[in-house]
Amino acid sequence: MLTLFDVQLSFPETIEGIDEAAVQLQLSCDQRRMFQRFLGFETFRCEPTSSLAPFLHDAARLILQRNEALASRLTHVVHCHTLPATSLVGSEMQSVLQPFSSRGLEVFSATMNHCATGLTALNILGELLDEGEIALVLIGERAFHRVVRVIENATIMGEAACAILVGHGAGPYGVVDSNVYHDGRFALITGRPDEASDGEFSKRYLEFACEGIHRALSRFGVGLGELRCVMPHNVNVPSWLQIAQHIGLDQNRISLSTISRYGHCFGADPFINLMQARRDGTIGPSDLVLLFSVGLGATASAALVKVN
């Protein structure tokens, strides 16, 4: 069983309110009201002109410093990101993975499941790591342009740096199993406002997300009643209320409190919600929780985690 030994979350210091975001993102008054009143967004952490590598390296430094024994067994580092490229081609920007590859560690990036890539990486690492080996998973990117930050009528992106130490052995969060579900009909979705098939995916999103949850629970051999909580991606509040109603899950068992404070932080959301629920005391030892995320394309990734 793969174990999440520790999770470090870091956010930009700048707190951006919805009014400021509306100006920066050129939202109309109606769009601002929709994102705030209907979709549930209030503030974001975002510094899009700052460099990505130092942002993620700070999170990595903190988690490695407080886990020296695990850090001494580090063999793999993976950067999970939603955008296919996280820097300009040919730029002089420091690579996220270069400091680790220069130490002789095995490094790779993963992106093709977009916002679901962070959860998909757990599936990969569960198979890849041998006993005694430790991997550092880095999740995050900069929301540097309106096209990146806004999915029309759905969500606004914020920024978070997430660093996770994983491996085999006893720890606070055991990954019981994971599942990835694809729907190839939407494989060409780019997220651009003019994308012809985007409207069709929006119509089928609810069906797709519910099917992703049902398939995951069926694979895990677990019923909804056995879950203490669902840790979702922060696309927006009403879509999750619809999902809860559709699958027959009490909406109070979906962790939604961070949507208003952080927005949709790409692939980091389920881990943000997991840490928030642990701090709040919503989850505790022996609880089963479902980490779940949908990525454009379309992919639904899920991980069943036992809290120890």
Any overview of this molecule?
With 308 residues, this protein is of the alpha+beta class. It folds into two domains: 2-168, Thiolase/Chalcone synthase (Peroxisomal Thiolase, Chain A, domain 1); 173-307, Peroxisomal Thiolase, Chain A, domain 1 (3-Layer(aba) Sandwich). Helices cover 34% and strands 24% of the residues. The chain has eleven helices and 13 strands. The protein has helices at 18-24, 29-38, 52-65, 68-71, 98-101, 117-128, 146-149, 198-220, 237-247, 259-262, 269-280, and strands at 2-10, 15-17, 43-45, 74-80, 106-110, 134-139, 150-151, 155-156, 161-168, 173-182, 229-231, 288-295, 299-307. It has a nine-stranded mixed β-sheet with strand order 5-4-6-9-1-10-13-12-11. Helix 5 (98-101) links the parallel strand 4 and strand 5. The model has no long low-confidence stretch (mean pLDDT 94). It comes from Rhizobium mongolense subsp. loessense. Residues 219-306 form the Beta-ketoacyl-[acyl-carrier-protein] synthase III C-terminal domain. This is 3-oxoacyl-[acyl-carrier-protein] synthase-3.
CATH class of the largest domain: Alpha Beta
- What does the main sheet amount to? 9 strands, mixed
Count of alpha/pi helices? 11
Sequence stretches where pLDDT stays below 50 over 5 or more residues: none
Distance between the termini: 13 Å
* Overall mean confidence score, pLDDT: 94
- Architecture per CATH nomenclature, i.e. the level-2 architecture of the largest domain: 3-Layer(aba) Sandwich
The value of Rg in angstroms is 18 Å
Secondary structure: helix percent: 25-40%
Compressed to H and E, one letter per element, the order equals EEHHEHHEHEHEHEEEEHEHHHEE
Question: Would you report the number of β strands?
Answer: 13
CATH fold descriptor of the largest domain = Peroxisomal Thiolase, Chain A, domain 1
CATH superfamily of the largest domain: Thiolase/Chalcone synthase
Q: What percentage of the residues does DSSP assign to strands (E)?
A: 15-25%
Number of domains: 2
**Coarse structural class:** alpha+beta
Which strand order does the major sheet show? Answer: 5-4-6-9-1-10-13-12-11
Q: Overall 3D geometry?
A: globular
Keywords: Acyltransferase, Transferase
GO molecular function, one term: acyltransferase activity
InterPro entries: ACP_syn_III_C, Thiolase-like
Protein name: 3-oxoacyl-[acyl-carrier-protein] synthase-3
